[in-house]
């Protein structure tokens, strides 16, 4: 299927590895030029070189912190008129809510709610004027089924979801859609970090925990960044203009509900 994206430009945040990289690669495969971001320059540049060599698209790699005004300004200078925006940022640490300070909450809200809103604010009007725009927020399955040790993430990402639910119905008239991808257990560094926290608190060996969690998923495995990226690319395509304000859960069937 031709997704109608060749020659377009995308900003993909936190995309040197993991799910962000999966999205960047899937878009590059469709001929999309990229601005990719991450904090670690070496990893980011390796990813940029790989994508350029494999798909021949233009890639601008900007090392920095997308959760700061300076980091966002650098990205927007490199790509002031993106056709696609993929919001992504590392999740806050797991833990017990009794231990979290106001500062912990503010960091979580800044990274996982306010930063995406600022990037949407900076790009959505141009998309509307050009009559094409796709915004995808990478949030978490915890938005739909909260995880007790991920309270900071639960709260911040749910706040972003509520905000988007309103504006996504206003922008679609101009062929600008805003949706979210809700990853469940994907084989990423984030999953490993969460497992390490659980293993430490329970005393269960890390590898045993990993095997049990994979076997306990209806799919019998964890997701891959490649299949996550494919879902992102479709939501960004010209075939997905009638999908907006939605939260697509990718969890291998772990959530047991019907809605």
UniProtKB/TrEMBL annotation:
Superkingdom, taxonomy of origin: Bacteria
CDD domains the record matches: BKR_like_SDR_like (cd05344)
One Pfam family matching this protein: adh_short_C2
Family: Belongs to the short-chain dehydrogenases/reductases (SDR) family.
Protein name: SDR family oxidoreductase
């Amino acid at each position: 299927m031709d997704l109608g994206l060749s020659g377009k430009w995308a900003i993909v945040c936190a995309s040197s590895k993991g799910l962000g990289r999966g999205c960047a690669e899937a878009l590059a495969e469709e001929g999309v030029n990229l601005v990719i971001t991450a904090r670690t320059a070496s990893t980011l540049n390796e990813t940029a070189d790989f994508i350029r060599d494999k798909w021949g698209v233009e890639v601008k790699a900007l090392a920095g912190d997308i959760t700061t005004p300076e980091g966002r300004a650098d990205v927007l200078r490199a790509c002031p008129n993106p056709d696609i925006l993929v919001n992504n940022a590392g999740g806050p640490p797991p833990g017990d809510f009794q231990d979290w300070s106001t500062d912990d909450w503010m960091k979580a809200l800044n990274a996982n709610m306010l930063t995406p809103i600022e990037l949407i604010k900076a790009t959505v009007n141009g998309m509307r004027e050009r009559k094409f725009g796709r915004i995808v927020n990478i949030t978490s399955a915890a938005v739909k089924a909260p995880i007790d040790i991920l309270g900071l993430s639960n709260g911040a990402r749910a706040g972003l979801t509520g905000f988007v639910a309103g504006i996504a119905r206003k922008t679609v008239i101009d062929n600008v859609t805003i949706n979210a991808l809700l990853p469940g257990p994907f084989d990423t560094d984030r999953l490993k970090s969460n497992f390490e926290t659980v293993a430490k608190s329970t005393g269960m060996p890390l590898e045993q925990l990993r095997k049990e969690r994979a076997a306990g998923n209806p799919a019998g495995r964890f997701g891959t960044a490649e299949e996550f990226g494919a879902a992102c690319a479709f939501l960004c395509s010209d075939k997905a203009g009638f999908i907006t304000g939605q939260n697509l859960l990718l969890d291998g069937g772990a959530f047991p509900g019907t809605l």
